[in-house]
Queue: 2 jobs
Job 1
Amino acid sequence: MNVIFDNFSLYRDGFLQTLKICAFAAIGSLVLGTLIAGFRVSPVPPLRWVGTSWVNVFRNCPLTVVLFFCAFGLPEIGVNGAYFWFGVTGLVLYTSAFVCEAVRSGINSVPAGQAEAARAVGLTFTQSLSTVVLPQALRTVVPPLGSVIIAMIKNSAIVGAFGVGGDLFAVGDTLTSSRGEAVLPVLIGVVLGYLVITIPGGLALGWLERKVAIAR
Amino acid sequence: MTASNTAPPMIRMESVDKFFGPLHVLKDITLQVPKGQVVVVLGPSGSGKSTLCRTINRLEPIDTGLIEVDGRPLPAEGKELANLRAEVGMVFQSFNLFAHKTILENVTLAPVKVRKLPVAEARKTAMELLERVGITNQADKYPAQLSGGQQQRAAIARALAMRPKVMLFDEPTSALDPEMVQEVLDVMTTLAGEGMTMLVVTHEMGFARKAANRVIFMSDGEVVEDSTPDEFFTAPKSGRAKDFLGKILTH
């Protein structure tokens, strides 16, 4: 197990890189996914079409294909930038489809009368969604959304393998392939790094779930 | 109806038809409600009276015909429609108070978000309204902590907070325990006495007799009778109305 301690700074940097990818991707996909969910329940048909197509494309494509498009397709149409941002973009696009469906299931769990009452007092569609429906949807949405975000954290390994580099998974790759370290202890170190993110994340979600449940 | 002046009626429906799939729920409805009138809509369940009520603020869109509120045709979905709904108060059978907000927040939400009133002013008005419906002491509770009667009175206060020109009541007492019906009807009777234009879908015959200026009887999606409460209850003209009254007034 010495390999973990001997290369601690490498692991630490990898951990921080993974954390960075996940933080940007989580914020991006939660915002984008909620927006797309709004599209999917909108009274405006073209917005509904956009929302439905979005989900169908990104939920049904393998993440690696989405990443390929971002990393190699975007430069071809003139969008240039760091691989880091291509990787994050790919992960956001892919995860937003799952966030959207989780949020939409939450929206559907709010009784129709709530939205009717909101419209009846003169709130616009956007206002009734943001002040009446979504706050109540949040309650049912926390557990499935938690699963989506945890899956996203694990998917960040694929982003790392995709040339973004420097993340936890890439650290494991470097140590085993380039330096010929034994695989098992190296991977145990990698796993521990992910658990340090996902387990507290799960606990935080449990706390959030209890907190929003009380606010009734 | 006799048009006593040149002002447009508060509600005007002209040849309104509505279908739910193959079901013809509103059949060629034409009626006018002048300002200040209290209209009670009666009829057996499935007669289309709730649907009629819900078409007036376009919670149910109609298939053909015309609906005007205070001389303005109902706009299509969007900002314009939201503005119109702000002027039409609605009270639902199942109250539909916002479950995640306190009673006070329920009443202040629309004045702050739609009318852009300062929060302090909206709260002050809200407390006055809650006092009017007799539930000031419930202001900081959540809807689930209130009885049905209290919830419905809060819902009336929420609608009044927008200073509506007209109030629609869709079976406001049908989901209430019997002992709570009266407290809600009392609030409605006071409101009627103050000159509010009201359209009330209900099964409360006592309220219809006491507070209504006019009774509309619906059956199978049609307006079958349109008369004063006295006339309707003592001398109904149609067989369907006689049949309906026979069923509800015997016990």
Job 2
Amino acid sequence: MPWVNPSTKLQNALPLKTHPAVFVPAAWPAEPAGVPILYIFPPSKQAITSVDAECVKYQAFLAFSNYKHTIQECHEPGMSPSGQLPFLIASDGRILTGRQIVEEVKNTAGDLESRLTDVERADLTSFTLLAETKLDFALLFTLWYDNRIRDTVTFPMYEALYPWPLNKILSRQIRAEKTEWMLSRKSVLKRDEILSDAKQALAALSTLLGSQLFFFGSKASFLDAVVFSYLHVILSQLALPGADVPLREAVMRHDNLVQYCRRVFNTFFALT
Amino acid sequence: MDSQPPLPEMHQPPPSASAAVIDDAAYFRQNEARRLTDLVTSSQSRPLHVHSIRIDGITHTRSTLVEQLVSPILQSETLGDVIAESREACQRLNRLGVFRDVAVTLDTPPRGVEAGGAAGVGRELVDVVLTVKEGPRFYARTGADFSNYDTTTNITTKISNALGGGEYLEANASYAVQPGVALNESAAAFASETGSYFQLLASKPLLPTPRFRRANRADPEARIEVAAYNTNRNAQLHQSHDEQTKGLAVRYKTADPYYGNHEFAYDVAWRHLHNIAADASGSIRKDAGHTLKSALSHSFTRDHRDDPMLPTQGTYVRVREELAGLGGDVQFAKGEAEGQYIRNLGHGFTLSSTLRAGLLMPLPNSTKPIRVNDRFVLGGPNSVRGFAQSGVGPVDKKDSLGGTAYYALGLSLFAPLPRLADKPIKAHFFANAGSLLPSTISTSTTIATPTPTTPATQFSTLLSSPPSVSAGVGLAVRFSILRLELNYCLPLVARAGDRMAGGLQFGVGVSYM
């Protein structure tokens, strides 16, 4: 016979009248249940691809994998459990970021890389790493340290999100964070060195691509998502009328990469 | 004797209910005091002019300022004037907040003065000597405070009379920890820090130009303040987030013990909702990020209770209005009111009744939703007892979402305890009721379509929906700066979703229903 706290007994014995809840929270996400949602940094007006390379990367990966989902815009990285956009709300309500998204998509929509040989897998890993370090770094550096880009593209992009004077503070704060991140990778930020690293990476990627449809034959892989995201952002965001942005020029030199980027965009992200 | 100016009327404290027995010595002293008063009263209209004012003991305060404050004494024509104006001058000096002690002495001027006086022979002259003592200029205090869910350590340093005109600079820092959570919750996900607070404040008295025969009461005590602050608030326990606020505020404050205190403020606050818990509800997650609130507010407080912590009679009124949306991205109008009426039933019994209500409206052409950090919360040992802290009203999963309209009622009977009738400890019987509603009422899981609400419809919904009710019995103890309560609570009516805290509930705080 378990001992029952007399206080609990008394509480249970007395009548408690319960009314229905005053408020049932709207299901979140407020979408048809079961459809996963990818939260991305807002796109520019003309496109459905985000202006943020990391978000484009996952948009592309989901599109390549034919993973059924919807897109929501969000400019608060704080909403994401990792503090970074994008994040995915899976059909069962789990909130996933980064690698977890890749795993989730592989498990539900099939593995894009299952047909690759071991050599190709090794290439995929090393070229992904190459793009995610060299191209990412060069893009970040150009966005925050190319004065024209910074003043006409990057700052306005962030400043549009918040009211004055908070927008001035926050955009500078983001720049400080990015600078700190870059300095944690390189002790000195040299424009020429960063650019030549990117050029080498672009040359290597151009060679790997050759005249193929995708990097590993006729089907897209995660590497395609990665490279497309950087190329697309570089080509679309860094286009300044009447000014040459070195990183963009470096991409433009590789015809096959430009064609590739255009083709992927038209196939997967063209507005219908 | 008839044309004498009336002495400034003083606000007498209400006569004590228990008249003390007056012994012989006290009777004699009282008699003597009355005799002196009579003497002064009877000679009030005696013509008397002030020859000079001397102020002793000023070191840091600007002498021009002090001179201006006491100058009306010079216009005195009778003894009554001299006394009344000196008293008023002392009060004015006290309002500066820099003197620890102000005393007045009337003195005869040195011989030969009346002969040389050009204004007229035969005039009687007097010297007024004001002896003041300046308080310490530098002040520091450390302390510990307690409230329901945390303990706070704080430090205050203050430089008073910084520029010689009663201005002060103050820095406050406090840091709160949550010992209960740290000890009881096995999940280390809760940081034990519940918040920190830092404020830099500069305050300056606003002094009206003193005029002869004008009572100080006519101009309420006023100060203007500029403050910069930074607060961190941990709302993980009930709302799954942390909030950091950095702000600048300008406040104009007036204080009048009888007519009440007003505060007009303009506040710009940068709020950052961050550190959303992994299992936070979507309603909280949606509100993550930065917002800028720019708001005008006014609050009025009038406290006529005999003891704010455990009163036996009096009334208390507090009203606050806030309008956010002059710039920034937060737009709302908010009003909140609280009234308390306490009646002494005799024999140590006290009946206290409290009503609180609040309404929060988005501005007419605003598209921004009202966020969790602007909404009201209800429930807990200091409001509707018998429910958990913020436990009444809308919830999503485990998070209290807060609401945009609420009311709460409290009725408490305090009874003396046997053998402890003269101690600040009372038996406490209470009944509380309260209701907190969201702006959109949805009773199904489909997406709520926000219907335009007016204050009238919000209030009618509020009043027509049944409140959460609890009752109970316990002990209430007054300490110098706070009240402790230990109650056995029984929730009687609740809504699905309300977090109840039946059984023993412990309350610490300064403001109760």
